[in-house]
Amino acid sequence: MSEGEEKTEIQYNAQGKRKGKHDKPKPWDTPDIDHWKIEPFQPAWNEGGLLEESSFCTLFPQYREKYLQDVWPVVTKALKEHGIACQLNLVEGSMTVSTTRKTRDPYIIIKARDLIKLLSRSVPAPQALKILDDEMQCDIIKIGNIIRNKERFVKRRQRLLGPNGATLKAIELLTGCYILVQGNTVAAMGSFKGLKAVRRIVEDCIRNVHPIYHIKALMIKRELTKDPELANQNWDRFLPKFKKKNVKQKKSQQKEKKPYTPFPPPQQPSKIDLQLESGEYFLSAERKAAKKWQEKQEKQKEKVIENKKKREAAFVPPKETKKRKKTATSNGGVSDTRTNGVNAQDMADKLKEKFEVIKKRKPAKAMEIETFLAAPGK
């Protein structure tokens, strides 16, 4: 750079942006001005009103009909203050809002459209009417088309609520939003910053990322905002980092490969071919119906007999095992005798007959019956 050329210094405006050659000084633009502040609308800003009529219509489910009939006078009164006309059509099941000549705020019709959307998604009327405030925004998140499996969808939607609604309450406290889970949608009301966090949590939850991870990050961010020294620093080093874990799934058993043959498999007989073979094809419709009914009756009889056997099986007595009685012998030993089906008196008579036969054979020796019986003490 030559000495004749002037050194140009980089200048910045009040917001910290670099000034260009077309930037002109703005005395009203000072650092103490909040550019994000939403000022309330004054009717004097638009005294002429709107040139064209704008209207929005939305449908509501049948189960909301009774509730909407009860709260519709309250909704009509709230919209009338802003110059908005509303109509409830119970035949078509729809709600309509439209501007009138008294409407001054051009954005209030968008707020009225959000109001009827929230009412149709089961948000209570006192809560839904808060959307008419300038600082309150809403977002309806569709979660029904994120996952196809119905069982997984129901399980993950319940995960968003948590036990007794604890998880949902924690998200509401950290984001400052009102959240309502209804069917395939999630209705949220709050600031833009809170709605952005709610949408991310809800969509990640349906995609199998547990809400507790986001809740931990939001709690850490809340504590970091209290420290003014960390206001302009990167917070990534403080936030937890969670890695996805791939759960090992059981490998399906591989089927045994059949030997390769160049010829296709034989064609299976069709239903008509089977009827032709059995002769059923040539029967009339009445005889076919009679045959079908007869087969049904036979199957029913077999089923009845089978069920009867199952019921009677509970009343069949179990087989008894044969018990043996231990008796003492004359030698002092123990012998087993079976007593089932044998009378003790018959056994005694047989013993006496044998004794008489032996007595006749040996008359010389005097024998008594007591010698064959064991003494009670021995």
From TrEMBL:
It is found in: Nucleus, Nucleolus. GO terms for cellular component: small-subunit processome. Component of the ribosomal small subunit (SSU) processome. Pfam families: KH_KRR1_1st, KH_KRR1_2nd. Belongs to the KRR1 family. One of its GO terms (biological process) is rRNA processing. It comes from Ceratopteris richardii. This is KRR1 small subunit processome component. Required for 40S ribosome biogenesis. Involved in nucleolar processing of pre-18S ribosomal RNA and ribosome assembly. InterPro entries: KH_dom, KH_dom_type_1_sf, KRR1-like_KH1, KRR1-like_KH1_euk, KRR1-like_KH2, KRR1-like_KH2_euk, rRNA_assembly_KRR1. SUPFAM superfamilies: Eukaryotic type KH-domain (KH-domain type I) (SSF54791). SMART domains: KH.
